[in-house]
Amino acid sequence: MRKPIPSLAATLAGLVLAGAAGAAEDGSLAAANPFLARTVDTPVHLAHAILVKAIPDRDATITDVPEEVLLTFNEGVGNDFLALAVVDGEGKRVDNHDAKLDFTDRSKLRTSVSKLTPGRYMVRYRVLSADGHVVSGKYFFQVQTP
User: Which of the four, 58, 80, 116, 138, has the lowest number of CB atoms within 10 Å?
Assistant: First the structure.
């Protein structure tokens, strides 16, 4: 379970108290030692999901026609708001409307595609980051005759 992130004021108060604990014997306060500062236990997921790998890759020109499009994000993503579409140059969807997250690795999103002919394709995606924000994007790739 995640611990809440303490406010800046609470963190600074903790640092002041840590410094005050080092009072000199004559009652005056010694300067706070920065090496004694308390650490803040923050959640691992503080940023939006980022697309780190795509098959086919962004702006790639390929001759081997894939059977699916596979996107990999830097973190696991949620099922809510999930979307993945592959669109040809005429605006027609060529994916099989079966976008799904990998069962064992929720950072991988995939959809199968029908037989792709030579041309330019756009991949559009939308996922829910672990931090609760919806992330969307698009990229293009090109299929050429071998």
Answer: 80
- 12 phi and psi, to 5 degrees? -65, -40
Compute the average pLDDT of residues 79-85: 94
**Residue 11 dihedral angles phi and psi, to the nearest 5°:** -65, -45
Describe the chain by its helix, strand, coil percentages, rounded to 5.
10, 35, 55
Q: What is the pTM of this model?
A: 0.68
Q: What's the rounded Cα separation, in Å, for the pair 136 and 71? A: 12
The 10 Å Cβ neighbour count of residue 88 is: 17
User: Distance between CA 89 and CA 63 in Å, rounded?
Assistant: 17
- 123 backbone dihedrals φ, ψ, rounded to 5°: -110, 125
For the chain, how many helices (H) and strands (E)?
Answer: 1, 8
pLDDT tens-digit profile of 52-64?
Answer: 999 999 999 999 9
